[in-house]
What does this fold into?
Amino acid sequence: MIASEPQQRPSTADAPEPQATHPVVQMTGISVEFPGVKALDNVDFRLFPGEIHALMGENGAGKSTLIKALTGVNSLSGGSITVNGTSTRFNGPADAREHGISTVYQEVNLCTNLTVAENIMLGNEPRRFGGLDWRSMRRQATVFLKKMGLNIDPGSSLGSHSLAVQQLVAISRAMVVDAKVLILDEPTSSLDTDEVKQLFTVMRQLRQDGVAILFVSHFLDQIYAVSDRITILRNGKLVQERFTRELPQRELVSLMIAGTSDAQVGQAVARNAKEARSENAQPLLQAVGLGRKGAVQPFNLDLYAGEVIGMAGLLGSGRTELARLLYGADKADEGTIELGGAKTKLRTPRQALGHKIAYTSEDRKGEGVVGDLSVAENIILGLQAARGWTRPLPATKASQIVDAYIKALGVRPANPNALLKNLSGGNQQKVLLARWLATAPKLLILDEPTRGIDIGAKTEIMNLVSELAEQGMSVVFISAELEEVLRLSDRIVVMRDHTKVAELPRTDDVDVPRLIEIIATGEETK
Amino acid sequence: MTLIYKHRLFWPLVALAALLLACTIKRPDILGITVLDGHLFGAPIDILRNSAPLLLVSLGMTLVIATRGIDLSVGATVAIAGAVALTFIASSDHPASVGTALGAIIVALGLCFILGCFNGMLVANFGIQPIIATLILMTAGRGVAMLITNGQITTVASAPFSTLASGFLLGLPVAAIIAYGVYLVVALLVRRTALGMLLEAVGINPEASRLAGVKSKTLVFTVYALCALLSGLAGLIFAANTMAADANNAGLFIELDAILAVVIGGTSLAGGKFNLSGTLVGVLIITTLSLTVTVLGISPLVTSLFKAIVVIAVTLMMSTRLRTMLAGLRERRRFQEASA
Amino acid sequence: MSTATATIAKSASRKLSLDRRYLPVLGTIIVFLLMLVIGGVRYENFLSPAVISNLFINNAHLIVLATGMTFVILTGGIDLSVGAVLALSSVITATLLQAGVPLILVLPIALLAGSIIGLGMGVMIQYFDVQPFVATLAGMFLARGLCFIFAPESVPIRDEGFIAITNWGLSTGRWRITAAVVIALIVVACAWWILHRTRFGRTVYAVGGGESSATLMGLRVARTKVTVYVISGTCASLGGILFAMFSRSGYALTGVGMELDAIAAVVIGGTLLVGGMGFVLGSVVGVMVLGLIQTIITFEGTLSSWWTKIVIGVLLLIFVILQRILSLRRT
It folds into this structure.
């Protein structure tokens, strides 16, 4: 099995052994397939008692699929799982929990309407006279809460506490069944600094008690603060397993996001960076101190006509949140936007649309595609929304527009009456692009337009972006793939930990390693 | 042939045909139409006339359901419209004049529109679940209707007003002309303007619609107002039929019949794609059901049993779970046949 | 660590005082007391034992209906069939007794009818993804249709055993309590115990709070969702028996619209219609509020009966908007 592709698939056997000799969880050659996608391809993963093991990777790397494969949510198409030396398959999180593997999710999956004590004890509740024994339930819950350093009333309802407390309560619940393995799936996403500290204290305490912790986070600093080892996944494949202390941040980031080979981008033309703007050019849009609590730190940004601004940064770095503020999809708490020199409020997408701003969401399915409507209806939706329902687009004009875009973007099948949900991801993306292009925007914000689509479609979309900029459109292009960002952009904005950390013109000395450096450390080493 | 079989209105139309067939077997001449005094008479004409109020209510309900909503208050609105109109006529000095009848219609529809705006405000602006928001008016509405009629069954005589229900125009019942005319107008309005597409977009994916700039609040508000307006019109036809405003019984359970008609017509209660022609077939099935039951000599009270069977059958047919179960069975049978 | 703990603990204790679980019920109790006070001040004999006793006696069946409905609404569902099931059970009771079937057989059969309809609706909802609204609408049509098949006309009850139970009562002074009230209160006590002292009961709350969370917590969600409809159906048919005791007859057209009264009582009683929050005792107070509205309107004399519905509607509006504000603040 290993012999078949020895170069690509680094064996975990090469990695240095940690203090414990036998892994509590050993996953070998794990493959998971969804219709048309290989979400995990022959991945090895192991977890030792008494370690905090970070699982790293960008969108679609397969982190959550690996966790779901372990807890039995996804069924395996290949490979084996050994827990405590015995081969095992769980049939769901509840089953896994009974065998000592508990999961705590980012969106705390407890019932906020129940009391803290119930959330910890339900399923293992003490009984008296055939019914729940509330008093000893609360008493036992208090013991577990104390271990977390929490001094709260176990009889209070969970929803009355902050997310951080809820997170710790979820960990308490995991401890009730004497968890040997604790999976923390992005537990820190909505916590503030003090709360993260508190969580780490608990994690270190658990590590001392011999619990194996699998930790997923997008914050590099947190990974380095708390983890012992790191497993990196990319595109459903294992990249490497390394000790944290022996892996520089820069290398970690490059392992996570590199690998966009030229072959993948295909025929996409590298854009020539624009000649310097004339001195007195007026920005199309000027964001001054724009920010939103918990999403993006206040930032300044100028966008010019005919320019492509690339946004680089890891998942969860605030790149999407920034884009949503520019479109009015979320309301900014502070700062201003000036359009063509005039102060403007963007409170709703509708207003942004009125100012000729368009935005495609990274969440194509949830926030873009209207699946049960036809391709044609999806294309004219934005245009029609702007006109209002009383002024329908004349049928001939509508079909002209639809046909033109289907042809120009090469939508397949080229049938305007096909339901959008029946098209492939790449073609759905083209239809959504058509929806926005039809509104003739001056500013087009594309949030990961190339994610999860095939190489051909990727190339076409990137070529299209180049063309649009040539025609004078201002484009904000967000992508996890630094190669793509570098190829297209005139200027590159780097996001890190919800903060805009750098803005640099694309010159010859701006390359992938340099971007990785900034993403990893937040600053440039000169 | 398979195309016809797979058409979403195939089964509803079969059901309608079966009901009519059952009638014809019992009374072969029932589908005949006779001309009397230049007016058309006969069972088909009766069905058209009797279906008028339900068609109007179901029309509004279809649009509400398309936006992922529901309106439970239509029955109460029907009662209120009748109460307002007849009380207005009863208290006027010239109850028989055309002006009074017109005044009554305008006042009643105006009030219904306001009630619809109330529902729309609760749902669109306050973000209250539609089923809860409209439950309020469903509960209070009949009380309001009784308040208007002072608890009496107000009976009036106004020839112009009663024309709404019993009059004939070009040989056809006025009620049917109004209802089917409004149906056509709304259907054209919905499909010729962008209203239909935007409603469907909101029902299918509210967040994507919002990001595409669709004013979903306004749209949702509008359909509740429109639904109440149509219910009010249905209430006027009801009231004109009996010329008595019965606040307790006018439009009783019409909300359930309307929801049933929409569901039979193939519009999902989960919102999104809606099908006005399906709703029409649903309305005709429900109206014909009453006729069939009467013709077959079954107590009309048992009608609800048939409705129960229809609801259960239709919803189970639409359930993906049952479909996969049936597909699995078929697969297994084929497998067994192959291996045998 | 200590500083972090301190800040978290502090924020926790501050938020503790805002525990909102009891707020809606508190509102209901305040409304109830206010109405008692208003009634007591305005009318003579309003706060008399007879009036209070009658409040229970006249609404015993509604208390049972609302109790069953509370289970369903706590899971985030709704049951429109209870009025029709109540009628069906009263008709079955009356018809079977008239046919000479012994009482000891009749009562379980009548109860079972509701349980079976509830089971059918629960299965449709849980396993065939039919919306609760539609499934229970079908249950309503079905039960009402069956009523007419059993007995299109009102059937009087002359069974001696049944009448003996009906006539049983305790009275001290002008306080009076009937068998129906005793049964209703026992049902409420059982419901309270089940909801607060069993894992099933807590699962009911958990499902209403978030179905996927409850599943991930390893609770038996599917079974719970079916069971609440069985409970509601059984409560509805018990309500039918109580109503038959009250009216000494079974009639197919009883309880039309009673599902609305039950839902209104539960909502006014402080149970969130989206599920997950509420108390069965709140629903009892909700029934009492509905009963008091009627009593006050009777006492007032000049006010007509339709004001009952309007007042209930207004109360519903107020409670629904209050609930909305509470849930907005929560998120």
Summary: Residues 37 and 64 of chain B are 41 Å apart (CA to CA). The two ends of chain B are 31 Å apart (CA to CA).
